[in-house]
Amino acid sequence: MKKIALAVHGGAGTLVKGMMTPEKESLYKAVLKSALHKGYLLLESGRSAIEAVEASVKELEDSHLFNAGKGSVFTSEGKHEMDASIMDGKTLNAGAVSLVSGIKNPISLARDVMEKSDHVFLASIGAMQFAEKLKYHLEDEKYFYDELRYQQWQEIKGTKDFKLDHSVKKDAKFGTVGAVACDRFRNLAAATSTGGMTNKQFGRVGDSPMIGAGNYANNKTCAVSCTGSGEYFIRGVVAYDLSCLMEYKNLSLQDAAEVLIQKRLLKLGGDGGLIAVDALGNIAMPFNTEGMYRACKSSDSADQISIYGN
Fold it and tell me: Helix 124-133 crosses helix 106-116 at what angle (to 10 degrees)?
């Protein structure tokens, strides 16, 4: 049987070890483990990489601990605007949504855009009309309310400042979530979801829903989900650049990922990390910040669940 592999992340940023209590660490790791197992069990049963990454990301969206779905941050208007994208490495089909509200699992709406529309990217009112057409249930604002998120917003409410979730407080909760998978047929898939920036204005959109910037999958090379300073991932077209380094420079997954995160992204002035998997089931999870919530598992490796560097 071909090797299967799955990796998930819950964001990268300023994760100061001394400010993380054992209780908090256990909570984060428990959700990461649950998300990892949700997707991996599907792979073990012969299901597709697309199904696996959607299931893993939904589990992370359903937790208030991460800035996606239920734990999304507040915009300048005190609302929650979410972005998500998903891509199938076999067909290169992709779906993405941006600036959606009330959607419990934006990643599922992104998949529906991929499979039930003629488009790749739907945003704002149009995306919501598409969700209504598919009879999506809209959650009340209170479903997305989280006290720590609210306090983050209060600190800069009424100003022109906006903050990445991990740049507000060193003990704050963190951003984007994602998953990448390789199934037993060597098909790859990637999924990414986020609640964006605290106090964001003007309909700001980061890299998470942008195919090629924060999310990408191609069976020839890899599946990748990024997290960090979105503007820099967009400028560097990081997710696609990883694929290009593998396809055109013949770099290994690990070498290509290290070059991107430890050299190219830093040169642009950006920080963050990524998770990636190739068609042989190899996994890479580099980051240039103090930590990144991450977990992975494959046919020949047990659960690996980490927050800080080695």
Answer: 80
